[in-house]
Amino acid sequence: MEKIRLLIVDDVEDNRLVLRAICRKLEEFEISEAVDGHDAVDKCEVLRPHIILMDVMMPRLDGFQASKIIKERYPKTIIMVVTAVIDPKMEENMAAIGVAAYIRKPIDKELIRLKLQSYAGALFNGAHERTFSAGMVAINPFQKDIRSFKTIFEISSIDTIMDFGMWLLTKFECTRMKVCSNIDRIIELLYALLHREIKLGEALTITIEESFDEIFINVPLQKIVEHNDNIDHLIRGLGSTCLISGKMVAFRIPLFALEENDIPFLQCKKEPSLPIPEETPKESRSLGDTERHVLRESFIQKVTAVAYVKTLDADAYGEIHDLREAEREWMSWLDTLSLEGSEEDFYSFSNEVLGVYTSAISALYEFSGLSYAIVSLSTFLKAHAKLLSRDEIKRAQVLIYLEALREDLSSWIHHIFEIQDAQDIHYLDASFFSSCMQIESIVTETEVDLGEDNEMEFF
């Protein structure tokens, strides 16, 4: 098989190193780099890459302009945009020039590998249909008049999701068609929905039905879909081409009219989400049983930073990079929250900044206490976003503690992962909990009761 030529384009060297570390595990890929849009255009003249991972914000020539030039000269080149910003207008502009795939930050390493391997397989027609079974009874919720065969995919691993992705990309000739962003959304959404069940050992079946104008994808799940920001964003992008009802997910894709403008985008059904209950103010805020358990687990055995870092693989440094990038976002959001501090701003800060911290720290495995504290803080801020948007005094006090928490997290990254001089990787866990509790106490007007755990250096 011919080598897949992959070009990574980013003006930040650390970003390129992270992406290279993720992609180097892919067999049959030759990886090159470009430092900005101009360099990418020049490298394409020489390398003729099959796939490009393209950053958006770059000096001299940004990712949009570079992608436009490259797609005009080399229309078969697949460009995947790497971005932390989910902007419908940007997606519309990118789709218009032929960019169909997105890698959203914080980067899911398995998802980016799955997308790259799926497109690589589709480039060389490596995918194949599995089995056919006769049948006239439609199971899809869109159309009962179907052809007399079905295509069945048995999904039991990440590799089988990749097989399905390759089949789908090949079916719609996404390596050659101008617009296939809906296909990319479907692959990403299915990955998000199936990945968890596969890890739990659940085997699933994807059934494909066809009419003469459309294909229908039907996926029965073991559990009802749990919504989050990324899943909801993908569902909204798919519009009426996606239907989620209970434990069934279904898609419809026109076989001929692949331009996005030809597909009506209506609101998709989804299970109603439960509102977050308002918390009743308490006279005293003390550690709960779960918090005590998580903290004590952190202190069972001391591990030095040097010893811990030796256990990390190359992928872990991608998480550290995400944390440093999120730290810069955190600083920017503090300015926004101090000037405006709308309810929507607190939601965005919780999702776009605290969400990145939670994802990256969870992937490092050893810091369940810290991850728990940040998840709790994120949930609390969203539950009280309206109050904070209206009460300037409480908002100002909360922002002081958020800045202190950011500084603690920055110090934690520096002493554990950069200079590695910490004698105990959990030396700041109690301080993190303390900061989160202080924020809660300000909003709910309660006192913080540290109880017996005060001896664990909460301050």
Number of domains: 3
* Poorly predicted parts: 126-135, 257-287, 289-300, 450-459
Distance between the termini: 59 Å
Number of helices: 16
Q: How much strand content do the residues show?
A: 5-15%
- Tell me the radius of gyration: 24 Å
What percent of the residues sit in helical stretches (DSSP H or I)?
A: 40-55%
Major sheet: size, sense and barrel closure? 6 strands, antiparallel
Detailed description of the structure:
- The protein is of the alpha/beta class and 459 residues long.
- The chain folds into three domains: 1-107, Rossmann fold, CATH 3.40.50; 108-274, Heat Shock Protein 90; 284-456.
- The chain is built from 16 helices and 13 strands.
- The chain has helices at 13-23, 37-47, 63-73, 88-97, 109-123, 158-171, 181-199, 229-238, 289-298, 305-309, 316-339, 343-363, 368-383, 385-390, 392-418, 429-444, and strands at residues 4-9, 29-34, 51-55, 78-83, 101-104, 131-133, 150-155, 204-210, 214-220, 242-245, 248-254, 284-286, 447-449.
- The strands form three sheets. Strands 6-7-8-9-11-10 form a six-stranded antiparallel β-sheet, covered by helices on one side.
- The chain is globular and about 70 Å long.
- The N and C termini lie far apart (59 Å).
- Mean pLDDT is 77; it is low at 126-135, 257-287, 289-300 and 450-459.
Give the topology.
Elements: E1 4-9, H1 13-23, E2 29-34, H2 37-47, E3 51-55, H3 63-73, E4 78-83, H4 88-97, E5 101-104, H5 109-123, E6 131-133, E7 150-155, H6 158-171, H7 181-199, E8 204-210, E9 214-220, H8 229-238, E10 242-245, E11 248-254, E12 284-286, H9 289-298, H10 305-309, H11 316-339, H12 343-363, H13 368-383, H14 385-390, H15 392-418, H16 429-444, E13 447-449
Parallel strand pairs: 1-2, 1-3, 3-4, 4-5, 12-13
Antiparallel strand pairs: 6-7, 7-8, 8-9, 9-11, 10-11
Helix pairs in contact: 2-3, 5-6, 6-7, 7-8, 9-13, 11-12, 11-15, 12-13, 13-16, 15-16
